[in-house]
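@channel sequence for tomorrow's demo:
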Amino acid sequence: MTQQQLADRMERPQSFIAKVEGGERRLDVVEFAEWTIALGADYSELLKPVVALAYSGHRATPSTTEEG
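structure tokens (generated this afternoon):
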């Protein structure tokens, strides 16, 4: 798939795709979901390793964070 095809599916400019692919811009979680849906991927499956890492102690979990 070309950058333009992905941009068309996401209703974004091609420059947005280029900046993400080139590392100039990061995706937020909503954009990540949109990106994976446009590619036909299952974003929940792609996030499982991230969530597992977060709960393995590498990052603060909801039970260990202090409320502000």
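heads up for whoever presents: The chain has a mean pLDDT of 88.
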